[in-house]
Amino acid sequence: MPEGDTVWQAARRLHTALAGKVLTRSDLRVPKYATADLTGRTVLDVTPRGKHLLARIEGGLTLHSHLRMDGSWKVYANGLRWSGGPAHQIRAILGTADRTAVGYRLPVLELLRTADEDRAVGHLGPDLLGPDWNPDSALENLLQDPARPLGEALLDQRNLAGIGNVYKSELCFLLRVTPWLPIGELPADRATQLPALAKKLLETNRDRPTRVTTGRRDQNLFVYGRAPRPCLRCGTSIRRADQGDGSRERPTYWCPTCQTGPTPAPGRIPPSERRPLL
Questions:
Q1: What are the domain boundaries of the chain?
Q2: Whether residue 170 lies in the annotated active site
Q3: Are 92 and 27 in contact (CB under 8 A)?
């Protein structure tokens, strides 16, 4: 699942393959930009911004993409077979003399003036892996709506950029509260720790092929994707339920023993993962 660390890795791969090189092939397979031709232009850099990718191109242009749930960029040496998915899922092709970058299932792809990048990413909060990171601003943003559930506040990229559903669940576990706890009720000492802890998790994983939050070799994650297996700390069955603001529900995981705070109504928890009645 693409989150800030995954996007950072994708940007590094694209930057290594394309930056400083002249495009010999350009194919943007979205109607609005189908006739755009970037061949002959040099790629200046590829920069991540939260979960967004900005490929800056000679002539004051930026190719902006967002991976969301299923998108990906693959880089191939010229002559190798592309293996990122069927051809109809390709949304962008950028080729140089020795490498080709192929964007699959990109839900967001737009070509804009570099001077207008703020139109695409200006709403984002401080980037956990970016040069603009500011823990004080991130915490201030999070606490602006004290009644908002912590999990929803963490996913709001306007507060801080880079956290997705996996890190949301893992952070709440490490903070020992449920994702449904109003963020204003998060104990002050843990609220102060939150920005640094989030940054540590993403920085630790940005160079790893497999995301790890536990520090263990036998289990990578504390709660995400582990229901109804036992909690690594206390042995209680991990729970799963959907969480969202009504526009989108996301699977959310927590330990009912290690984490305190509100939990969803039983109807929102899959029957196989509900705690038996005693």
A1: 4-122, 135-265
A2: no
A3: yes
Instruction: Indicate if the pLDDT at residue 66 is higher than 50.
Output: yes
Residue showing tokens 């902006």: 64
Cα 80 to Cα 74, 83, 166, 212, 235: the distances in Å are 12, 9, 33, 31, 47
- Of 3, 56, 195, 199, the catalytic one is 3
Q: What is the CATH number of domain 135-265?
A: 1.10.8.50
pTM greater than 0.85 (yes/no): yes
Active-site residue (options: 2, 149, 179, 195): 2
Whether omega for the bond prior to residue 228 falls within 30 degrees of 0, making it cis, is: yes
Burial class (CB in 10 A: 0-12, 13-18, 19+), 45: middle
pLDDT in tens, 91-131: 999 999 999 999 999 999 999 999 999 999 999 999 999 99
Which of 91, 148, 239, 250 is catalytic? The answer is 250
Annotated catalytic residue 250: yes
Fold agreement (4-122, 135-265): no
Sign of CA dihedral 77, 78, 83, 85: positive
Is 168 an annotated catalytic residue? no
Q: Which CATH superfamily is domain 4-122 in?
A: MutM-like, N-terminal (3.20.190.10)
Answer yes or no: are the C-beta atoms of 158 and 124 closer than 8 Å.
yes
Nearest to 172 by CA among 186, 188, 158, 156: 186
Q: Is 3 a catalytic residue?
A: yes
The catalytic position among 48, 49, 51, 149 is 51
